Amino acid sequence: MGGEEANFGNGPALPSLRVAIVGLGLMGGSLALALRDRVGYLCGVDRDEETLAQALRRGIVDWATADLAAGVRDAQVVILATPVRVILDLLPRLGGLLSPGCALLDLGSTKAAILQAMARLPAHLHPIGGHPMCGRERSGLAAAEATLYEGCTFVLIPLARTPPTALGLAQRLVQAVGARPLVMDGSAQEAGLRHDRLVAAISHLPYALAVALAATAQEVGAADPLLWALAASGFRDTSRLAGSDVTMMTDILLTNRGAVLEMLDRAQAHLDALREKLLREDERALRSWLASVRAHRSPEAAKSVL
């Protein structure tokens, strides 16, 4: 992504670090599972009482609470792992709750709006925008896995005010869970917009297309239920993302609306071109186009991301 990818070897232990994770769903819960033996103290904050009880029963955190102020008090690092619009609601509230020098990291899938909000935080806080490039279509703490972050690229976007020590700490935390920190260069706002446009193409558009595919199958299957008996790995693999958490994806689509619309237009243009080739029964053009796309999608051509 035009950034700097760090490689720290094996994950470091941070035995004196006090960490609070706000949001114990799939992403926050998986992060807690990966960090619980790597940091000195881990607190989980969530609005759902059953989630808090489950986190304590499973020993995922040292303490769990629904009280945001109590949960983040004295934390040296606070990690926001909620849906994007909840992060945007939380940021103004956190300004008066966090200790001076606290590093504040988020896991939101869109970055521009979050980085704008982080820029308005009090000067005594050290904000860093983050986005781990991993996930699953399942949601909630029950779906959390300690290995979710292993091997994934974890984007970090510091603000101009973020001290190198805070960024270095974020990199160590990311590497501690087995991920690869990638620090995007340029100004935070430019990096956020660039990030959002790129992930619209490789993450948010695939979700939208999976939803369209699943909706089409539902329509056809309603008229002829045999469809579901015929559906196999091709449909399962390409429609998997349609099962993603609705609240999370609604926030992502709305906070990255412009970039998602651009990518939908691009995809629509390709679908229109495919339709035109089929209407003309232009086999030569069809085969040429399919072969070209296949070559660019092959493991050899895209081995760095597949």
Using the 3D structure, state the CATH architecture of the largest domain.
3-Layer(aba) Sandwich
By DSSP, the count of extended strands is 9
Give the N-to-C terminal Cα separation.
15 Å
Unreliable segments of 5+ consecutive residues: 4-10
> What is the domain total for the residues?
2
Strand order, main sheet: write it out.
Answer: 1-9-8-7-6-5-2-3-4
What's the quick description here?
With 306 residues, the chain is of the alpha/beta class. The protein contains 12 helices and 9 strands. A 9-stranded mixed beta sheet has the order 1-9-8-7-6-5-2-3-4, sandwiched between helices.
Describe the structure using short key phrases.
9-stranded mixed β-sheet, alpha/beta, Rossmann fold, 12 helices, 6-phosphogluconate dehydrogenase C-terminal fold, globular, 306 residues
Describe the structure.
The chain is of the alpha/beta class and 306 residues long. It has helices at 26-35, 49-57, 68-72, 84-94, 112-119, 164-176, 188-223, 226-230, 233-239, 246-255, 257-280, 283-297, and strands spanning 3-5, 14-22, 39-45, 63-65, 77-80, 103-106, 126-132, 153-158, 180-184. It has two domains: 3-186, NAD(P)-binding Rossmann-like Domain (Rossmann fold); 195-297, 6-phosphogluconate dehydrogenase C-terminal fold, CATH 1.10.3660. A nine-stranded mixed β-sheet has the order 1-9-8-7-6-5-2-3-4, with helices on both faces. Helix 1 links the parallel strand 2 (14-22) and strand 3. Mean pLDDT is 92; it is low at 4-10.
